[in-house]
Request: fold
Amino acid sequence: TFAYLHIASAEKRSGKSRVLEVQSALVKAPTLAANLSVAVLARRLDRGATLLLDEVDAVFGNRGKAPSDAQEMLRGAINAGWRRRGGDYWRMVGQGANQEERAFKVFGPKALAGIGELPGTIADRSISIVMRRALRSERVQRYRERDAQSGEPLRADLASWAAAPGVLDALRAAEPALPDALNDRAQDSWEPLVAIADMAGGTWPDRA
Reply:
């Protein structure tokens, strides 16, 4: 499984988009978007992209109305990508009578940012961090797009670590201890992250 990251806040200008921008410098094949069709989503994920979807409140928000067919298809594709086994999204591709079934591999990392809550089935597959607007008394270093270049050494180190001999085999075999307070789906979401924290050592296992 691969838990989704839900970056939430109760109001705008709380740093949600900035989190996605910073992440785009650290992840594999980032696809940073504020809106996209299910066809584009399925094809990008099938090629191994990392989805960084902003303004999900606009993508899924209906102000009390029933979800549209397009929203339901997008939600279904995102839900399908939570688990590797069965993480396929089936579509008909082609022109006219020359169409055939095709399974798009939509499993993989996704971060979803927006105001308010996600659709329930996506939220159930997500780990949330809640942002808030900075107070006037709080000062943070300003982020510029060129600062993303400073993330490249860290991204390269992470990729090198994951590619080291034995790392993925050890993670596949790992059975870390998980809190009983988590339900089954939450345990499935956290298990790979806790396993990675255990391998990282230091303070990471306790923090996880």
In short: DSSP finds nine helices and seven strands in the chain.
